[in-house]
Amino acid sequence: MNCVGHIHHGLWKHPRDNSVDYRKPEYWIELGKLLEKGLFDAVFLADIVGVYDVLGDGIDVTAREAVQLPVNDPGYVVPLMAQATKHIGFGVTANLTYEHPYLFARRFATLDHLTNGRIGWNIVTGYLDSAARGVGLKQQIDHDDRYDRGDDFMDAFYKLLEGSWEDDAVVNDRERGIYADPAKIHRVSHDGPFYRIDNVYNLTEPSPQRTPVLYQAGASKRGNQFAGRHAECVFTGGPDRPTLARIVSTIRGQAVEAGRGRDDVKILSGLTVVVDTNEKAAREKFEEYRAYSSPEGALAHMVSGTGVDLDRFGLDEEITDETLEALYPGRLKRVGEARAGSFAAGTTRRKLLEARRFGSQQAPLVGTPSQVADEIERIVAETDLDGFNLTRTVAPESYRDFIELVIPELQERGLYKTAYEEGTLREKLFGAGRARLPDNHHAASFRTWK
After folding, report:
1. DSSP readout, 189-244?
2. Structurally, how many domains does the chain consist of?
3. Is residue 441 part of a domain?
4. Is 370 annotated as a binding-site member?
5. Domain of 335, in residue numbers
6. How many C-beta neighbours within 10 Å does residue 182 have?
7. What tens digit of pLDDT does each residue of 306-359 get?
8. Angle between helix 221-230 and helix 143-162 axes, rounded to 10 deg
């Protein structure tokens, strides 16, 4: 994330962490080069356009602990990393609720050109009231309504990128003085429930992928439906492996219902690793890291997604559905069932803080390269995941440790590539010759010029 503190809050204070350099071009250039050395598929860039201001009804904890505040725009660091690399892709988060597809399509087509086809878009619809207030709304749009809006956005987006310029519209004929054939550039007309466009799409010619690789994260029923229709890569998670396996199966099933294949979606889950050459050293490193973590920062992060100010509860007071409904009527409908279900029976503020002793709810794998590889292999076998989104702890140390210690172990087992394939990000993920979205994807229906 283009900020100081991302997932494991408080670790920016560690003396070997360089996250405070996020404003410097060199930070991103060196990160891109390091991750490409490790043969990573992509750098995933998260983002929010609001602020975590629910805990304590303000930003005291958020500002002190740099809980995704400040945060810069993720898109602008991509050309820096792309210039210094050749293969690694870039998944950029952008909130469609506060964008218009006409200019947004140009922005991502431009990034696809500048990266030679290595750009992806992580589609989010938002979850912060503060973001909505920032653009003039009283509060965020209701959960399912945001996805309805998202479906309309995507249809317009596809028309612009897939249906406007024909593949051979660019002639580039100097002798005849013709750069593009106007007969092969088509007017885009879209009259949807939320977005309207009526224009010849004259902003960008087709980029290597046309449409960026489409990422999406969402655990709700409506979010899974959206993913089944649109997403090529889905971020998900679960409290245990059987639950995660069921979620993975559901997402693949939604893709099939949308006329796609089960394997047309790559499903990823978050992964945090603290590794060293022996188990004792790994445990010591973990305890050293944890000394800098901020459970309060993690709580400020978590509650902004639920809209519940836990400072209104005593440390050992049970947080019940009845109490929440009394304090926050209608919360479930607005934030969605996945986020609203964050408080299990018997939950207290003390228990939530204890669960976040590493500055995040995400429990790390701690051990030797062999132990970490064993666990990764088991998770994939038991859940049918395709891969992982590796979260940083102390940066860049945690990346370097994974690259130097874990990846060779995975390569030896035949579980990790030993070299990049040529091609776009989509081809690296799905195979040679698949630079564009396939014909069974919803977007293909908007290629009306074929």
Report:
1. EEE-SS-EEEEE--S-PPPSSSSPEEEEE--SHHHHHHHHHH-SEEEE--SSHHHH
2. 1
3. no
4. no
5. 11-433
6. 10
7. 888 889 889 999 888 778 777 777 665 555 554 555 677 788 988 999 989 898
8. 10
Rounded to an integer, what distance in angstroms lies between the CA atom of residue 47 and that of residue 75? 10
| CATH, residue 304 | 3.20.20.30
Query: What is the per-residue pLDDT across 66-82, written as a single tens digit (0 to 9) for each?
Result: 999 999 999 999 999 99
- Structural domain contains residue 448: no
Burial of 308 (C-beta count, 10 Å sphere; 0-12/13-18/19+): buried
pLDDT digits (tens, 9 = 90+) for 390-422: 999 999 999 999 999 999 999 999 999 999 999
Q: Which amino acid is at 228?
A: G
16, pLDDT greater than 60: yes
Tokens for 43, please give them.
Answer: 């750098």
pLDDT value, residue 342: 64
* Cα–Cα distance measured from residue 374 to residue 361, given in angstroms and rounded to the nearest whole number: 22
**Does residue 130 lie within any of the structural domains?**
yes
Residue 79 lies in a domain: yes
Q: Is 143 a known ligand-binding residue?
A: yes
Here the tokens at position 117 are 């086809």
Judged by phi (left if over 0) then psi (alpha if -120 to 50, else beta), residue 392 lies in beta
Residue 236 known to bind ligand? no
Whole-angstrom Cα distance, residue 168 to residue 57? 56
Chain CA centroid to CA 95, Å: 11
